[in-house]
Amino acid sequence: MYAKLGAILALALTACAPVPTVKTMSSGATLASQCQGRDGWSDPAPPAHIFANVYMVGTCGIVSLLVTSPKGHILIDGATAEAAPFIADNIRTLGFQPTDVKYLVSSHEHLDHVGGLAALKGITGARMLARAEALKSLETGISDPTDPQLAILPPFAGIKVDQIVSDGETITLGPIKMTAIATPGHAPGGTSWTWNSCDGATCHQFVFADSLGAVSADAYRFTDHPEYVAVLRATMKRVSELNPCDVLIAPHPAQSRFFDRVSGKEPLANPAGCANYVKAAMERLDARLAKEAVQ
Predict the structure, then answer these.
(1) Which is catalytic among the residues 49, 73, 110, 204?
(2) What is the mean pLDDT of the chain?
(3) Which of 32, 92, 230, 232 could bridge across to 259 with cysteines, CB 3.0–4.6 Å?
(4) Whether residue 186 lies in the annotated active site
(5) How would you classify the pairing of strands 202-208 and 247-249?
(6) Is 186 strand, coil or helix?
(7) 112, 144, 147, 246: which one is catalytic?
(8) Pick the catalytic residue: 108, 144, 167, 210?
(9) In whole angstroms, what is the distance from residue 208 CA to residue 246 CA?
(10) Would you place residue 7 in the very low, low, confident or very high pLDDT band (cuts 50, 70, 90)?
(11) Is the peptide bond before 244 cis (omega within 30 degrees of 0)?
């Protein structure tokens, strides 16, 4: 399986188009400064250039990425319904047109990451792409019955899914080749996305890795659901083996030390990013299981 994945990733290592001319753009340092002490899901944040054709257009608490090309753009995650107008404004501020966003994709089907997608679909006219496991929740706005957070997750505005993508399938939009990686566990339909972006001769393989946290409602015990724990551990193993993993970005800024890295306090690219992300998540899962075992 991993040999097949490696082949898929190798196909994605193609040069991306030059960065389009933008109207105005905050630096990563400005983004980090304006979000200092603010991590609300709907807290407005300025847009910022990350690298090559990759831009942050989300909020202080939710990473939403715009990956651009002359043939159209892909938006990853839409934060909350309240944040949707800010995201659209951020796209405009960068000098891009929201109507040039052709595809919407998501990390997982929770309010804080997909609550704004229905509004953004109305603004952009983009097609929503998702794995089959996320379809029902995305369209109804109600979490899957097996989701550990079901009892504490508010509903969100459902969004029609226009196209199902399979694990390992690559979406092509102009020079963008973005591959879907099935990463269930934090949510049943969890999906990570990987692509290659180049600035001249410098290229980085991006991994937008879904959340890996063992988060649940208070009454949920992971020790009572060994099959779910096994799925989460398998996902962690898979993410740790993604290679190359030059630039890791997670759905919440703190998960991947996003603000420190885009502001230059830490390197943006770190080949050990995926492995480190998984190590921390595995330690939290083991601690959670150990705590449950003595309760």
Answers:
(1) 110
(2) 92
(3) 32
(4) yes
(5) parallel
(6) coil
(7) 112
(8) 108
(9) 11
(10) very low
(11) yes
